[in-house]
């Protein structure tokens, strides 16, 4: 059967063709509606955690959409939406150089130190 | 060194990437990744997203005719979840540098597909039950391994999806149980739905591994974790006892128990290809509905954008005045 080579079960809902390609522009696009990053506080006492993103024309709609998309089962008690364009991120290419300075400072961890046997509360 | 061998030498970036994947690490959006990996993921995640939103239609067909308010509430919640699944997945695809509008356009113009399973009609209420039980059940088998997919945003989206899927499967099984224990006519509806959905559900797992050359590459990349046949077998093993519990007959005369597994008969792929190529019972209707919903919603998007622009202009001028 040669036809079978043109599709496979990729996503969750089953077999789809594998020939459908899209041009990828790594720079990303400015869609018709701006992209928002969504952060959800799952309960009081915990910090907000990134949940995903969505498109909305303004902050107000972004909040409402975030409620419908990310908290349909009471997953949150508070939501932040942040324009994706406003996020400043460290670069993955500079990952090593950027985080290296902490690499050779083992003395910042308690495990660096020897504790005499038998002593507690140290 | 011959030409083929030279071509196979990987660049340091490729080696680093493969080492990360081999160590079961996660690839994140701005990391370097091979072009093929990115393209495969964009296609897979986009077509997965399309399947979620097109998948709203066969069940949505029964919302207004659900047999009770309880069933109606459940069905609305389930269909709304499928919309949510589509949204999680479109966001994951966008982290790879594609635009959501472009992906929708590819769906609307037929250049990208969605799962064939959604091109079958839902002719009775029992089909809604069978979809939850079998189609969502099969989707769970496929999706659970994807929660460990090497691409972080896809894996995270799948964790959310999987949490919601088990409700989908259980409500379907419950609805099926009610029918199977109902009047003779209801029991017949349930059997008829199982008869029609069983084989399409098995086909959801894709062709046998020997016929699926893409699988090997996806496994190397940590996108796919188990073979099509392996997952199909798990589904059959899990589902046959459920059908027995319902007192319904799996429509496979060759189905046997080999002491370890249920072995199903040969799958007839000819019908699958017909549906795949666009000649299924509902292909045109599904896309026509999707395009109509998109076009008819255009004024809402335009009004929201106009309102946002107006608010922005207003707060900018107030900022100047202050
Ligand atoms: Fe889903
Ligand atoms: Fe589902």
Distance between the termini of chain B: 73 Å
Q: Overall pLDDT of chain B, averaged?
A: 93
Biggest sheet details of chain A: 3 strands, antiparallel
Give start-end ranges of low-pLDDT stretches of chain A. none
Give an overview of the whole structure.
- The complex is a heterodimer of chains A (122) and B (322).
- Chain A starts with 6 loop residues before the first strand and ends in a 23-residue tail after the last helix.
- Chain A has a single domain (1-91), classed as Phenylacetic acid degradation B (Ubiquitin-like (UB roll)), CATH 3.10.20.520.
- Chain A is built from 2 helices and 5 strands.
- Chain A is extended, with a radius of gyration of 23 Å.
- Chain A has helices spanning 59-70, 95-99; strands at 7-9, 15-17, 35-41, 49-55, 78-83.
- By secondary structure, chain A is α+β, with helices and mostly antiparallel strands.
- The mean pLDDT of chain A is 84.
- In chain A, the strands form 2 sheets. A 3-stranded antiparallel sheet of chain A has the order 4-3-5, with helices on one face.
- Chain A is 14% helix and 21% strand.
- With 322 residues, chain B is an all-alpha fold.
- A two-stranded antiparallel ribbon of chain B has the order 1-2.
- In chain B, a hairpin with a 4-residue loop joins strand 1 and strand 2.
- In chain B, helix 3 packs antiparallel against helix 5 (69-94).
- Chain B is globular, with a radius of gyration of 23 Å.
- The chains are: A alpha+beta (122), B mainly alpha (322).
- The complex binds fe (ii) ion (2 copies).
- The site of one fe (ii) ion has 4 residues of chain B, from helix 5.
């Amino acid at each position: 059967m040669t036809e079978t080579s043109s599709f496979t079960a990729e996503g969750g809902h089953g077999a789809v063709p594998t020939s459908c390609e899209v041009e990828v522009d790594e720079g990303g696009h400015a869609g018709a509606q701006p992209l928002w990053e969504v952060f959800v506080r799952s309960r009081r006492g915990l910090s907000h955690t990134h949940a995903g993103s969505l498109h909305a024309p303004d902050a107000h709609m972004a909040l409402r959409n975030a409620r419908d998309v990310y908290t349909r089962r009471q997953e949150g008690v508070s939501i932040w939406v942040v324009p994706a364009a406003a996020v400043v991120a460290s670069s993955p290419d500079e990952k090593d150089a950027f985080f290296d300075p902490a690499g050779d400072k083992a003395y910042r961890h308690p495990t660096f130190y020897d504790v005499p046997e038998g002593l507690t509360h140290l | 060194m011959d030409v083929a061998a030279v071509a196979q030498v990987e660049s340091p970036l490729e080696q680093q990437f493969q080492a990360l994947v081999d160590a079961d690490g996660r690839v994140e959006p701005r990391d370097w990744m091979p072009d093929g990996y990115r393209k495969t993921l964009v296609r897979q995640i986009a077509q997965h997203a399309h399947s979620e939103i097109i998948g709203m239609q066969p069940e949505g067909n029964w919302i207004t005719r659900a047999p009770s308010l309880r069933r109606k509430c459940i069905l609305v919640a389930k269909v709304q979840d499928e919309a949510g699944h589509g949204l999680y997945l479109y966001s994951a695809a966008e982290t790879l540098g594609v635009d959501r509008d472009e992906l929708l356009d590819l769906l609307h113009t037929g250049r990208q597909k969605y799962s064939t399973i959604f091109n079958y009609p839902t002719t009775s209420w029992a089909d809604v039950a069978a979809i939850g039980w079998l189609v969502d059940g099969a989707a769970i088998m496929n999706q659970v391994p994807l929660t460990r997919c090497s691409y972080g945003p896809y894996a995270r989206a799948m964790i959310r999806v999987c949490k919601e899927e088990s409700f989908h499967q259980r409500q379907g099984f419950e609805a099926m149980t009610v029918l199977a224990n109902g009047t003779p006519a209801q029991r017949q509806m349930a059997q008829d739905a199982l008869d029609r959905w069983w084989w399409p559900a098995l086909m959801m797992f894709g062709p046998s591994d020997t016929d699926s050359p893409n699988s090997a590459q996806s496994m190397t990349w940590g996108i796919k974790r188990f073979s099509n046949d392996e997952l199909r077998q798990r589904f059959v093993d899990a589902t046959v006892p459920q059908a027995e519990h319902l007192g319904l007959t799996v429509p496979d005369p060759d189905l046997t128990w080999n002491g370890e597994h249920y072995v199903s008969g040969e799958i007839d792929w000819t019908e699958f290809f017909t549906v795949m190529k666009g000649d299924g019972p509902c292909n045109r209707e599904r896309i026509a509905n999707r395009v109509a919903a998109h076009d008819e919603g255009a004024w809402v998007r335009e009004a929201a954008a106009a309102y946002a622009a107006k608010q922005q202009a207003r707060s900018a001028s107030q900022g100047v005045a202050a």
